[in-house]
Specification:
Aminopeptidase; 8-stranded mixed beta sheet
């Protein structure tokens, strides 16, 4: 199985929204994701795509390449990053329940932090439920610190949220790059998200 970290496209929205419904009690609509991908000028939406080779069955075997294998692609996780002034804000992040526990959520988090560096952000911010200690541990691994508590932040049950932030000091940037290199060594993946501009910017240019 090979992994690719890349920008979310309209073609991905249905799969992303399906994962969102599994992950959260208050999921975003497909229209919201379409807006983030195609219209928002400050959004940098990301997906983690898994490709797997398998032997074709049924009529598909007639369309298979000469080696008799076909490649299937599936979105296994996604994230959202907003860049406003000096703040990079992680708006959402989730991995499909079938693929949790493999370290793939860390790939998404690290990808958005690295994208924040490319955007010259001063810090990265996010909110996390006070009960979600597993996510908090991952964020602290990347040097996010709790700044404050947002009371009754989550509308479905009025749970509080921690406001966590990573200040991108020169030292933090250096340590992050070391973590990112170690992550790619442990979980090899293709990365076109942190090195390219989002495709929706070209759409915006045609509208102007």
């Amino acid at each position: 199985m090979s992994l690719t970290l890349r920008y979310m496209t309209l073609h991905d929205v249905a799969q992303v929204a399906a994962i969102d419904r599994l992950a959260f009690d208050l999921p975003w609509s497909e229209r919201s994701y379409a807006y983030e991908v195609m219209e928002s000028t400050y959004s940098y939406m990301v997906v983690l795509e898994a490709a797997n080779e398998a032997a074709p069955v049924g009529w598909r075997r007639w369309l298979a390449p000469l080696n008799g294998r076909v490649q299937t692609h599936r979105i296994v996780g996604y994230g959202g990053l907003w860049n406003i002034m000096s703040e990079a804000h992680i708006s959402t992040i989730a991995v499909h329940p079938d693929y949790r526990g493999r370290g793939w959520g860390e790939i998404l988090l690290a990808g958005m932090v690295r994208r924040s560096l490319a955007l010259n952000a001063g810090y990265v911010a996010l909110e996390v439920r006070v009960s979600n200690t597993r996510a908090q541990n991952l964020y602290r691994k990347y040097e996010f610190e709790t700044i404050s508590v947002k009371a009754k932040y989550y509308r479905n049950n009025n749970e509080d949220a921690y406001d966590m932030r990573l200040t991108l000091t020169p030292g933090a940037k250096l340590r992050f790059q070391e973590r990112f290199a170690a992550l790619r060594s442990a979980h090899p993946f293709t990365d076109t998200y942190t090195t390219h501009e989002p495709p929706r910017q070209h759409v915006s240019e045609r509208k102007d």
